[in-house]
Design a protein that fits this description.
With 196 residues, this protein is of the alpha/beta class. It has eight helices and seven strands, in the order H-H-E-H-E-H-E-E-H-E-H-E-H-H-E. The chain is 35% helix and 18% strand. A seven-stranded mixed beta sheet has the order 3-2-1-4-5-7-6. The mean pLDDT is 93.
Length: 196
């Protein structure tokens, strides 16, 4: 899908996606930033596919040096801390204490998922938090850019095969949060930990 597909009509009106009004997610991502800060206490963070930068701003409100990228030229115009970029083409370089990728990996063609995860994992100095749309919850999905809808077990097996360590304690605490339960993220949230 071309980056220009993710224009204003993708984020508003449910014409191209499940979003009626993406601006309504601002408080959700600000609250998610608060929860992530309490769990991980990162000094730096990177949000891959962060759209309008709401999570980046939520973390910055807590003093975290946060940046992000998104493929949508329309989306990144909403934040000075977001840059235009493709998460399938991340290069090694700087690392961040916390890397997040929320409801983005389902947009990545299956043949590019492994290289995308490797790029995200390289950026993560300590933790990589993923929220991924799953096949188990896709019955009402209107978004035709969701090209990699896989079951939970598929992702678990991929993480195992790639040698990624899951942080069960953090996953459990985040999944139990009211925010994750309310937004149905509990079943589709994964925490990968480096250096263990």
């Amino acid at each position: 899908m071309s980056s220009t597909y993710y224009d204003r009509s993708y984020f508003y009106g449910r014409r191209k996606s499940n979003y009626d009004n993406y601006a309504k997610t601002k408080s959700i991502f600000y609250d998610f930033g608060k929860i992530l800060y309490r769990e991980f206490h990162p000094a730096s963070a990177f949000d891959a596919g962060g759209a309008f930068g709401y999570l980046v701003h939520g973390l910055r409100r807590r003093g975290v040096e946060s940046w992000g990228i998104d493929i949508s030229p329309y989306a990144v115009r909403h934040s000075p801390f977001m840059q235009l970029g493709d998460i399938t083409k991340l290069k090694p370089g700087r690392t961040y204490d916390l890397v997040t990728c929320t409801d983005v990996l389902e947009h990545i063609p299956e043949e590019l998922v492994e290289q995308t995860l490797d790029g995200l994992y390289l950026l993560a100095g300590k933790y990589l938090v993923l929220v991924i749309a799953l096949a188990e919850h896709s019955a009402d999905d209107l978004d035709r850019t969701h090209v990699c809808i896989k079951p939970y077990a598929w992702w678990e097996e991929l993480f195992r095969r790639l040698g990624y360590h899951r942080c069960a304690e953090s996953e459990q605490r985040l999944r139990k949060s009211r925010l994750c339960r309310k937004n149905m993220w509990s079943e589709k949230l994964f925490v990968l930990e480096k250096g263990t």
